UniProtKB/TrEMBL annotation:
Keywords: Coiled coil, Cytoplasm, DNA damage, DNA excision, DNA repair, Excision nuclease, SOS response. Residues 259-493 form the UvrC family homology region profile domain. GO terms for cellular component: cytoplasm; excinuclease repair complex. It comes from Thermobaculum terrenum (strain ATCC BAA-798 / CCMEE 7001 / YNP1). Pfam families: GIY-YIG, HHH_5, UVR, UvrC_RNaseH, UvrC_RNaseH_dom. This is UvrABC system protein C. GO terms for molecular function: DNA binding; excinuclease ABC activity. HAMAP family: UvrC.
Amino acid sequence: MSNNLGKEEIITRLQAIPEKPGVYLMKDKHGKVIYVGKAKVLRNRVRSYFSSKHLPEKIREMVPQIHDIDYIVTDSEHEALTLEVTLIKHHMPKYNSMFKDDKRLPYIKVTVQEEFPRVLKCRQIINDGSKYYGPYTALGSAAEAIKLIHQHFMLCHKENEPIDGKQSRPCLPYYLHRCLGACAGRADPQEYRAATEQVILFLEGKHDELTEKLRRKMEEAAENLEFEKAALYRNQIKAIEDIRQRQKVVLPTNEDMDIISIALDGGEAGIERLFIRDGRLVGHDHSVVELIEDQSPGQIIQIALEQFYIGTYNIPGRIVLQYPPDEIELIQSALQEYHKREIILEVPTEGEKLELVNMAAQNAKEGLERKRFKWLSEEQKRTGAMLELQKELQLPIKPSRIECYDISNVQGADAVGSMVVFEDGAPARNQYRRFRIKGVEGPNDFEMMREVLTRRFKRATSNEYRETSWGKLPDLIIIDGGKGQLGVAVEVLQSFGLGNIPVFGLAKQQEELFKPGRSDSIMLPRDSEALYLLQRIRDEAHRFALGYHRSLHTKKSVGSILDQVPGIGPKRKKALIQAFGSVSKIREASIDEIMAAVKGIDRATVIRLKEAL
């Protein structure tokens, strides 16, 4: 704590912080906000950063950088949550999880507070009385929607300033019968307001209601022999029907809802949202968040709800989630309080909504893969990254073959190791290998790494494997860890006569590299292609090891217990795992909650299950 608040000053500051709900801001030596958090009891929460021994890795990295603590007291947790989201979006703190590209997505803005509303594209939502729709994520989709509105709904095309009706002559669209002429004072305010209401119905996806209104107006105009006006309504109906034909029907009812699912991969999470309006899939978006803490799926879902729906407009009354947020009651009531209406958060266990959740989860996974391998597919960048690695790490040759090793276990249980291989900067998945630790008892990552590397290079130097992928030697070895794991790797390589292979440890906390025989670490530039390549390789090794560990652990912990309970067969076991995810969650659930989550299960079986747990 040498470069931040002194111990005595910390104690003084903590005593001054009130025991009330609110938001706290951690600042660095330059006064920059590096973290924003909310708390039910401010003093207790802030104190935990300086007293707890079990902080997440990134937060442990942050604490020594804290030079000042500010806080804002609120009247309730709801206010604290809303304020936290606002401050995070304003300060973009380094140590808060933020969705990338969140603010670049375009919205459509309808200036309903003006006498003659305009339809505009914007990238920032402000509390100015306008209605906002979006975000629009498909390339050009917001512009296309505005173009269609201007073609068929007669609103003024003026963008730069409100319409005052004082223009000397109407714009060209007026003479093409695509505008009511409000800019030149020729529009009837009542007719213009009716056109605005039609646009709002269109943007809200209420196409059935809008089509019915337009159809009545068309028939009325035809009866009055106003054939030009009837043709206008006919064209509007046709444009709406064309859009509906391009939208997929996903629900038998005309419901409005958003679907949110996630996918985890290394240090990132992909978030997929499906937008359902009138039972039709009208759009989707994909966001990526870099995980700052060791966040659970429920925490990631909560971050998504806070950032997507607090401070925004036009959200549906139902949001369907893959996982329940950690503070589901707080976030649901906060959303309802912010939007002044009922909003339901739902985690389905069966039916069409569960199928939509699964579809969103698959798209979240594929979105992460696209992001990762879009970069990996660019040969020029990969080559540049390898050449940069050669220069920065002073390697004898360009590292065309890189191997990375990681260990995954919980207190030594179900320990596994992973080996991933990148050739010419791209993953060689057919050469990935997984190792189940056999000769180490208890949580000893160093000896686990020794076992994995010994098994790998024993094969590399054996004539039996010389002609296989095991016989290929790397140009560079990356060990996921610090100096301890690196020292083990050096010993193993030397024992097989392979001490000439460059090996480095990559510590995730500061993204620093350790080299054998060098006391200080190597820090690659944060924006360098070389560091990006190493991060991708390291994250891939972590993902590969963690996936194997989880599969072993899940089979052992969930399967073994559930298999012993009479009345729980494969289908019910699968339903329990899907609904709760872990033994601890099943143990915490009430009998009624389990019966509600698993279709057809009887009370006696649930009681036996609870007893077994």
